[in-house]
Amino acid sequence: VESVEHLPSWLLTQTAARAGRVVSESFATVGARGYHYRVLSSLADGGPASQADLGRRTGIHLSDMVKALNELEAGGYIRRVPNPDDRRRNIITLTSQGTERAQSLSLLVRDVQQQVLQPLDESEKAQLTALLSKLYQHHHRQGFPPLPSM
Amino acid sequence: VESVEHLPSWLLTQTAARAGRVVSESFATVGARGYHYRVLSSLADGGPASQADLGRRTGIHLSDMVKALNELEAGGYIRRVPNPDDRRRNIITLTSQGTERAQSLSLLVRDVQQQVLQPLDESEKAQLTALLSKLYQHHHRQGFPPLPSM
DNA sequence: CTCATGTCAGCTGAACTGAGATAC
DNA sequence: CGTATCTCAGTTAAGCTGACATGA
């Protein structure tokens, strides 16, 4: 039995837990959650979309998407408009408040990134991002289902 | 607002979620959980300990440790013996079944590692482990409290 | 009929919080 | 006294499952 602390999966989940905690705490100070940021930035980045599309873009389950959008709608950050071309769907759009919110949360995240990755120099940060990206791409595409709504 | 998919913290939590899921599913097939493995391997690796010490070694909270040990004790994998030198403490020891269990779970994890890290070659795996280890060490020691029981 | 969409209620493992009893 | 250990009850965000009604 080898030491747990050298297992990549252990290190991965532990550092992720740290990072997630720091991000969550940071979001909590302004009354937001991770899902809010992901949805808002996806809308700002990729434009209006249906809820199902948003789920695919962000990796958030449809059922969770409903909840997140309820909260964002209550806060005045997004609007749900029925899609006339397909009456099953809503078109989710950012309000002006939502655009501002997306920007301020984005700044928040940028600060937190530096906090989490502080012990790494620039080339190491790039390395880590590249490696994680490789893993993410691989598991996202092949071998595993495209995540939500399956 | 930049794309979420290039943020290290996003990649970190997403890949960790994948890894965690694969590990969990693998454990579930033999009726175990992540906490079980961490506790058993810590005992096999570092020898008998009090519950609080185990918590520090594994990064598991004291309250969760109680639950995990209850389950492991019910399965016959560990024993709780009162410490005569300090009657607040228990001495947690592995049974022979627990030793076997630690080994079999360890093999399971080894397979899962390869599954998760499959897209990376050997030097990339080593890089990733080194980078994560650096982050883990940093956040474990300085800046953040030593995790459980604080 | 099949499939996609949106909604709702609930579950899980992991991490964490707070309170209390006991013993150092 | 303060501190450490163990236990128990509860909370959170994230990810996930199943069921259902509606419409393409």
List keywords for this structure.
150 residues, two-stranded antiparallel ribbon, mainly alpha, homodimer, globular, disordered C terminus, DNA-binding
List the helices and strands and how they pair.
Two copies of one chain form a homodimer.
Chain A lengths: L7 H21 L5 H13 L4 H8 L3 H13 L3 E5 L7 E5 L1 H21 L5 H20 L9
Antiparallel strand pairs in A: 1-2
Helix pairs in contact in A: 1-5, 2-3, 2-5
Chain A binds a DNA duplex (24 and 24 nucleotides) through helix 1 and helix 4.
**Main sheet: strands, sense, barrel of chain A:** 2 strands, antiparallel
Q: Figure out the total of helices of chain A.
A: 6
User: Biggest interface in this structure?
Assistant: A-B, 55 and 56 residues
Low-confidence stretches of chain A: 143-150
Query: Nearest-angstrom radius of gyration of chain A?
Result: 18 Å
- What overall geometry of chain A do the principal axes of the alpha carbons give? globular
Name the structural class of chain A: mainly alpha
Binned, the helix content of chain A reads 55-70%
- Portion in strands of chain A: 5-15%
Task: Describe this protein's structure.
The structure is a homodimer of 150-residue chains. Chain A has 150 residues and is mainly alpha-helical. Helices cover 64% and strands 7% of the residues of chain A. In chain A, strands 1-2 form a two-stranded antiparallel ribbon. The longest helix of chain A has 21 residues, at 8-28. The termini of chain A are far apart. Residues 143-150 of chain A have low confidence and may be disordered. Chain A binds a DNA duplex (24 and 24 nucleotides) through residues 13, 17, 20-21, 24, 33-35, 50-52, 59-67, 86-90, 147-149.
